[in-house]
Design a protein that fits this description.
By secondary structure, the chain is an all-alpha fold. The chain has one domain. Helices cover about 80% and strands about 0% of the residues. The protein is rod-shaped.
Length: about 90
């Protein structure tokens, strides 16, 4: 397989574009990974809460909205959801 000068420039240009794209997407991908990790931890917190406080009659439905709320707002979001669950 022979490479001419034009195909070498095309490969170098494509590699440069790929590196620029990775550099631009590095921060948003980090943010998205952190967001999904915090949502997963929020869902785990809901499951643990339901296991621990099941006999006390406290229950928080495990759904994506609750997981995101707890993942984003942390303990205050958890408290708000508990108050809302007890009122409704």
């Amino acid at each position: 397989m022979s490479f001419d000068l034009r195909s070498i420039f095309v490969y170098i240009f494509g590699l440069g574009l790929l590196l620029i794209l990775i550099k631009l997407l590095k921060s948003p991908l980090k943010w998205a990974a952190r967001f999904f990790l915090s949502c997963a931890l929020g869902a785990a917190a809901i499951v643990v809460f339901n296991l621990v406080f099941a006999k006390a009659g406290l229950y928080l439905p495990p759904n994506p909205f609750n997981a995101v709320t707890i993942g984003v707002f942390g303990a205050p979001g958890f408290a708000v959801l508990l108050v809302l669950a007890s009122v409704i």
